[in-house]
Specification:
Strand content: 15-25%
Distance between the termini: 116 Å
Largest sheet: 4 strands, mixed
Number of domains: 1
Shape: elongated
Radius of gyration: 31 Å
Number of helices: 5
Number of strands: 7
Structural class: alpha+beta
């Protein structure tokens, strides 16, 4: 009689596995469980990457639009006589709508003339209680559109309140009210000696 056939040692390994029933010893479905545990963090990571990339692309589009509008003002294609807040916003918004909602909600434009580049350098902004507050030296100002004439020094500042869609990113990205983050672009220049109309 062989050793395996002895009465005390009659079970092989497969029989032993069947004898120990239990939830933790059953390996069926382990791949599905592992996938379920990893799917949520993976999806969150993918959404975070997409959100960051789209936000960065929106910022770059806004910077390019700001440069283009500043060039049109610098060369006299757009002049003080035909520039209003509505026309500048519409010009910027028409190019931004590829990345943002229709009519560009959250778009702020500040365009003004300065006596010197040193004065323009004092212009700034700060975020107070989730709102954008423009500063000019020590005085707070509201956004205005008032470009200068030929050979004047001007600054165009464009602000956009970009919505943060992913909730867990809103905690770290959002610096404005309503889960929004600030996109900002600025250009300072001296107008060319064009003919004022």
């Amino acid at each position: 009689m062989s050793k395996d056939a002895t009465p005390g040692n009659g079970m092989d390994n497969r029989a032993r596995v069947r004898v120990r029933p239990g939830f933790f010893s059953d390996r069926r479905g382990s791949t599905a469980m592992e996938f379920a545990m990893l799917a949520i963090p993976f999806a969150l990571l993918v959404f975070a990457i997409l959100e960051s990339c789209i936000s960065f692309a929106g910022q770059e589009v806004m910077a390019n639009v700001t440069d283009d509008v500043a060039r049109q003002l610098r060369t006299g294609q757009l002049q003080k006589s035909n520039v209003t807040e509505a026309s500048i916003k519409q010009l910027i918004c028409s190019r931004l709508e590829i990345m943002v909602a229709k009519d560009c909600p959250g778009l702020l434009v500040d365009l003004r003339e300065y006596p010197s580049f040193a004065d323009a350098a004092t212009a700034g902004f700060k975020i107070v209680d989730g709102d954008i507050v423009l500063t000019q030296g020590t005085n707070s100002t509201t956004p205005t559109v008032s470009p200068g004439l030929a050979e004047s020094i001007n600054m165009l500042r464009v602000f956009y309140k970009w919505p943060v869609m992913t909730d867990f990113l809103a905690q770290s990205m959002a610096n404005l009210k309503d889960k929004k983050t600030l996109h900002f672009a600025s250009v300072t220049w001296q107008n060319e000696p064009f003919d004022d109309n």
